[in-house]
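Support request from a user on the community tier.

User writes: "When I paste my C-alpha cells into the form, the page sometimes reloads and wipes my input. The last time it worked, I copied everything first. Here is what I submitted, just in case something in the input itself triggers the reload:"
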C-alpha cells in the first residue's frame, strides 16, 4: 500500500474515504474541511455530507409528522416509513464505507453527480 497517495491526517486515501462515512455528515464535513488536495477523499466527504444530512433531515421531518398524524390515525404508518428510511440509511452507510475502503469512487444516483461537482 506504499504506492497509494496519502490523504488527510497521513492516512491512505481508501481508509480516509471510508472514514468520511463513519459518523455520517459529521465526519464527511471534517474530512471535507481538512482535505484540500485528494479528490477521492473530497468526493466521499461531499457524498457523505449530502447523503446523510439529507437522511437526517428527512427523518426529523417524518418524525414530527408522525407525532402530528398520530391523532389522525396514520401516525403508525409514518413511523414505519421512518424506520424504513433508517434501514436504507444503514444499508447505504455500510455500502459506501465498503466501496470507499476498496478504493472505488462509487457514485449514488444524483448525489454522486453533486459530489463530483463539489469535490
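"...and here is what came back when it finally went through:"
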Amino acid at each position: 500500500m506504499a504506492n497509494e497517495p496519502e490523504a488527510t491526517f497521513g492516512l491512505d486515501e481508501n481508509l480516509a474515504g471510508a472514514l468520511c462515512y463513519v459518523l455520517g455528515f459529521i465526519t464527511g464535513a471534517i474530512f471535507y474541511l481538512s482535505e484540500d488536495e485528494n479528490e477521492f477523499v473530497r468526493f466521499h466527504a461531499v457524498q457523505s455530507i449530502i447523503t446523510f444530512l439529507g437522511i437526517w433531515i428527512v427523518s426529523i421531518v417524518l418524525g414530527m409528522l408522525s407525532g402530528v398524524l398520530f391523532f389522525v390515525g396514520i401516525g403508525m404508518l409514518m413511523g414505519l416509513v421512518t424506520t424504513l428510511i433508517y434501514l436504507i440509511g444503514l444499508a447505504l452507510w455500510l455500502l459506501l464505507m465498503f466501496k470507499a475502503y476498496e478504493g472505488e469512487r462509487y457514485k449514488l444516483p444524483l448525489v454522486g453527480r453533486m459530489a463530483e461537482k463539489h469535490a
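Agent notes: The reload is a front-end session timeout and is unrelated to the input. The CA atoms of residues 7 and 38 lie 6 Å apart. Helices lie at 13-19, 25-34, 39-69, 75-101, 111-118. Escalated to web team.
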